Amino acid sequence: MKRILLVGKPNCGKSLLFNQLTGLKQKVANFPGVTVELKSGQFNDFEVVDFPGTYSLNTLSKDEQIAVEKLNEAINQDDTEVIVNVLDATRLERSLVFALQVQHLAQQHNKKVVFALNLIDELQRFNHQIDVAQLAKDLNAPVFALSAKTLTGVTEFQKGLVEIAKAPFQQNPHSDPSKNVQSAKALAKKYAIASDIVLKKQNAIDNFLLNSVFGAVAFFTIMFLLFQSIFTWAAPLMDGVEMLIGDTAALVTGLLPSGMMQDFTADALFGGVGSFLVFVPQIMVLTFIIGLLEDSGYLARAALICHKPLSFFGLSGRSFIPYLSAHACAIPAIMAARTIESPRKRLITMMTIPLMSCSARLPVYALLVAVFIPVDHTVLGIFNLQGIAFFALYLFGIVMALIVSALLSKSKMTEQSQSEMPFILELPTYRMPHWKPLMHRVLNSGIYFIKRAAPVIFIVSVVIWVLGYFPQNADLEHSLLGQFGQFIAPVFEPLGVDWRYGVAIMMSFLAREVFVGALGTLYGMEGADENIAGLASQIMADGLPLGTGIGLMLFYVVALQCVATVATIKAEMGNAKLAWALFVVYGLVAYCLASLANHLI
Fold first, then answer.
1. Among 239, 472, 498, 526, whose Cα sits 20 to 30 Å from the Cα of 535?
2. Which residue numbers delimit the FeoB-type G domain (predicted)?
């Protein structure tokens, strides 16, 4: 299958155009560094490959280096038919510098080049027109004006792209690479809208959001409301899911005859797998809020605000974006660290990302917070106390990451053997989110979490149920599982938990969210069938001490209990020993913190 390559600078709408061409729902956002790996999909009879956003063939960051290396490989291959240069119509000069470099590279390898002048809807708001036909003559290549967001001109672009891809190659005069910057400036002067017109509204907003005082207040307010929303917005959905699971469990188990199958369905399926499904709405709400920040363009401003304080801890302002992304999932966040120009700061960021509280921790936090803080308690009659507790847990993870970053920045392992790269970050134009991909991303976050976690939790629940059910006439404590739990109980005794929690913690080394499913199975097998989905109320009735509960929360904030994250760190760093060293060190620190909390509170 012939290929079409999609390239362009960050924030030019390239990924959204890729979605429109292929029908795939790739992540679309409004800050540099979203696409940090190659994405592909089918359009017509062609494979479309979306490359990471790049400012120049002369690379600075890791993701640009990967993009340029892969671009050179792709252009050298015979099955590459067309290179589509996506231009930002509102910032034409910056787009053209890279586009002209790519055009010259394509000419050297006899490849066709097409220019997609995106964000044309932004120009229309300012009543600015670009002579597309004349621009095509000046570039000596086809140019299509379009808006991937409003779909203006997309149909014409799709039709024209197919015709060009299927047409025979025609050699054009080669451009002069030494004049790329000069040519970009000349073309921008001739066609581009004046930057002060586009930036007038943006600068007015930035004067507030980037102000040293008001900007900081706005930043902390936004972050605080983000975590408040996880509980307040998701609470009705969580209640609905819990009620649905409880009613379904009662209905299904009532249809089954008494015996092993009924016990398995109630304890392993609804008690184990059902327990963690209650927390899926919180993951979706978190994804929605982060998506709003990304798509609006605020995330890049937050990175700029954080640059100076993060520099104190040996990090970069660009570290903020992977850090925030890690609150959804550590794996793409570690890959997003490629956008950090400094190799040293990139390494420190990757090593501390696991301390950010990802969505897998949400079920654990939500369960333990629900046990110790009543849902109707508020501060000042406005702020939900459970939301404040959530914010404190996330903040603790961030503080731990900063402390570890400061220590790493002064260690010999990350000493500045290479020259530091400058902090460069483009501030994108403020835009309304594109709601369709955003809502699809939110829905996918829930589906992805279920697909990723449910099989593991199901297997763990089955193993726990089988070991706990046999010998059949024995109670849970004297079952095979109980014997194993009693064997490992001394290890977890300093944490103040009994053997059931020890088993759940051991099982959760596969994935953190397994802790909830494992406890759900164990509590279900102890006879709490009348409240199968209400695991929090079962733990409350069991009398878990406050110090022990806080210790468990701190343990899960710090411990690196995710095999997939360890594998990703190993792949990105190219160092298996370092990846497993992080696993061990974070585990020991988490254990010590949990023990201290249990003894001191």
1. 472
2. 1-167
List phi, psi (to 5°) of 562.
-160, 105
- What six digits make up the tokens of 35? 């696409």
End-to-end CA distance of the chain: 64
| Encoded tokens for 139 | 């570039």
Final residue of a domain: which of 158, 177, 199?
A: 199
Over residues 47-75, mean pLDDT: 82
Range of the structural domain that residue 489 is part of: 210-413+435-601
- Return d(Cα 350, Cα 358) in angstroms, integer: 14
Question: In sequence order, what DSSP letters do the residues of 36-52 get, joined into one string?
Answer: -S-EEEEETTEEEEEPP
Query: For the segment 421-436, what is each residue's pLDDT rounded down to a tens digit?
Result: 566 677 777 877 878 7
CB within 8 Å of 296: residues ≥ 6 apart: 30, 430, 431, 432, 433
pLDDT tens, position by position, 272-299: 777 778 778 877 887 888 888 888 888 8
pTM: 0.69
One domain, residues 75 and 168: yes
Structure-block tokens of residue 13: 């709408």
Same domain, 223 and 184: no
| Contacts with 503 (C-beta within 8 Å, 6 or more apart), sequence order | 464, 481, 484, 485, 488, 518, 522
Q: Residue 593 is which amino acid?
A: L
Query: CB within 8 A of 79, min separation 6: which ones?
Result: 1, 2, 3
Structure tokens at 247: 């009613």
* Residue 428 forms part of a structural domain: no
User: For the chain, give me the number of helices (H) and strands (E)?
Assistant: 27, 8
What is the rounded distance in angstroms from the CA atom of residue 35 to the CA atom of residue 532?
42
Identify which of 397, 385, 364 has the alpha carbon closest to the alpha carbon of residue 518. 364
Beta strand pairing call for 143-145 and 112-118: parallel
Answer with the one of 152, 172, 199 that is the final residue of a domain: 199
484 in Cβ contact with 467 (< 8 Å):
yes
- The most confident of the ranges 334-343, 407-416, 566-575 is 566-575
Quick check: is 205 in a domain?
no
* Tally of structural domains, the chain: 2
- pLDDT more than 70, % of the chain: 91
Q: Are residues 512 and 446 in the same domain?
A: yes
pLDDT confidence of residue 413: 63
Q: Is the pLDDT of residue 530 over 50?
A: no
Instruction: Return all residues near 91 (Cβ < 8 A) that are at least 6 apart.
Output: 192, 195, 198
- Looking at the structure, tell me whether residues 193 and 217 fall in a common domain: no
Judge if 473 and 498 occupy the same domain: yes
Residues 224, 226, 227, 231, CA torsion sign: positive
Q: Among residues 521, 494, 493, 512, which one has the least CA distance to residue 553?
A: 512
Q: What's the rounded Cα separation, in Å, for the pair 363 and 456?
A: 15
Burial of 73 (0-12, 13-18, 19+ CB in 10 A): exposed
